[in-house]
Amino acid sequence: MAAAALTGLTIAEARDGLLAKDFSARELAEAHIGAMEAGRGLNAFLTETPERALAGAQEADRRIAAGEARGLEGVPLGIKDLFCTEGVATTAASRILQGFTPPYESTVTRNLWDAGAVMLGKTNLDEFAMGSSNTTSHFGPVENPWRRKGDNRPLVPGGSSGGSAAAVAAHLCAGATGTDTGGSIRQPAAFCGVVGLKPTYGRCSRYGIVAFASSLDQAGPITKTVRDAAILLRHMAGFDARDSTSVEREVPDFEAALSRPLKGLRVGIPKEYRVDGMDPEIDALWQKGIGWLEEAGLEAVEIGLPHTQYALPVYYILAPAEASSNLARYDGVRYGHRAEGGGDLLEMYEATRGEGFGAEVRRRIMIGTYVLSAGYYDAYYLKAQKVRTLIARDFAAAFEAVDVILTPTAPGAAFAIGEKEDDPISMYLNDVFTVPASLAGLPGISVPAGTDGDGLPLGLQLMAPSFDEETMIAAAAAIEARAGFDGAAAAGGA
User: What's the pTM?
Assistant: First the structure.
């Protein structure tokens, strides 16, 4: 097969083609390595590991020939550079971690390698996963492979998993890992016209993932199709005793859930998500999504999530608070960047952290430290925790009446790089539809469902009760089948 045909394959197609010996794992790896090199202008990868990919492909070909193929044998993946990878640099896209090579492997990536997957490299992200545009990386912004009609200005891919989303959309890898704290898998997936799935909090281990906000962070897949997301999630998930928040629960065959019947189920449409000034194109797409699910046999029901309006301010109190604590460990003593010059230990700490962290990370550390400080802890942090509980209760009550919830993924399509750089509040609003599920620890998936007037992709989001990814995946597949979205336009941008 031609290289372009190989890089255009989904994970399911690559898996099946390898088992049928239509092509070799080496040919598949070489095609993606070539695409990765040709697509460097997108800045989607921070570290490329072609030698490792070829070595993994050679082992995959041996196993396939011996009839010992595992679930992801020979499938080439991009890994968000927030996952520690033994012997391969992990930077979290920050200057402060430059030169850090982990001596251990994250549980999620270990699970993927144990399933036979092949690593092409580490993908770019917003620094320490803090951002919605992938422009806060110390190593420069990622470009979305999509362009507006008649306008060649580079667009943001969304964040923080923008490198992974852009790499999948541009066919630089068959699939990729991401992490989602407040929407960092789902929002970039919507901007790049791919599928992004955030599983239930505790479904995937956080061990070996550089922490942002520990009560929110969750790993998940970014893929070309819903089927691929189901395949990848099955091999990423699982209980891990090294992660105290990991839930000991059997991992289902998510791919089998694609054919689950939907007739008789109910889809909730939250009235609070119809925000003032909503883009008419987003609202129209939402209405289409409701119609598609009704065609699939679901009954649409209006529901209330009354505390949704507080989700964004709650998130931007709790997440920075946890970040200020988690990022205290980066001081230049044991690893990573250390500021040069004399002075005492405290001066070295201050200089290292001042140089090592970018503006957005410094902003969130200061906000977090402020809300945790004496006199403000009760007024902000404690109150935010109480409202978070109310948001979770709203969802619990809603799911007594419905099986899934449908909303837009983001309030608009991708915007130009630099367009909202001086307005952090406007940037934070990109997460307005994704943050509530994160605060409640619920699974969510973004499915590409159409394009706006400029020809840019738009996504629809489904949410489900905790650990019911299977129903969510089945409903997502129904939307995908009816939307008929064509992501081919993105691959040409690489």
Answer: 0.96
